[in-house]
Amino acid sequence: MIRRLSVTLAALTLAATLTSGCNTFSSNSNAAVVNGYALPVKQYEAILAGVAQTPETFQIPAVDATGMPGTTARSILGQWVSNAVMTSALASKGVTVSAADRKVAEDAILAGKAAAVWATLSPGLKSFVLDSQTLQPAFTKAFGTDAQAALEKAARASKITIDSRYGMWDAVTGQVAATR
């Protein structure tokens, strides 16, 4: 199976020492922006649609006629934010996740029980899954025993904005929260 997206872990990691505050914006083109890394609305909606097609693979509640629960959609957006924070922090050290690292992660998926599901996922969703599985190990390798503190510092220093249609960034909890 595809490893569960560590949304809770990422949120807890970011929440440990964050200061309070939130940033929202209304944009017709981006669901979120983190330090210049943008998640276009169409890409976010495609990720949500792909996850909704195989909820058991992503260990989320089944999606019914009312659509994906807001908490699930915000958790997925929160995972994207965590990925972007790690990408930005790694870039500041001149580190990237290599194509070879992504290939190793993909090969592990293809060798497992999720191979059939993997074949049905969109390229954007595959990229999101690979980011979610490769960034944390790269971050830990780059920052070593200080990885936790480095992630918290990177999150505090990041400019994180969320389109108000999808929620708001809550820097206290390190999560995408429902818009008040």
Distance between the termini: 36 Å
Total E-strand runs: 6
The best one-word shape is: globular
Query: Widest sheet: strand order?
Result: 1-4-2-3
The amount of helix comes to 40-55%
Going by CATH, the architecture would be: Orthogonal Bundle
Instruction: Figure out the total of helices.
Output: 7
Mean pLDDT across residues: 84
Number of separate structural domains:
1
Do you know the CATH topology?
Answer: Triger factor/SurA peptide-binding fold
State the major sheet: 4 strands, mixed
CATH domain class name: Mainly Alpha
How much of the sequence is in beta strands? 5-15%
Succession of helices and strands: HEEEHHHHHHEEE
Describe this structure in words.
The protein has 180 residues and is of the alpha+beta class. It has one domain (7-177): Triger factor/SurA peptide-binding fold (Orthogonal Bundle). Helices cover 53% and strands 12% of the residues. A hairpin with a 4-residue loop joins strand 5 (168-170) and strand 6. Helix 4 packs across helix 6 (123-143). 37% of the residues are buried. The model is unreliable at 4-22 (pLDDT under 50).
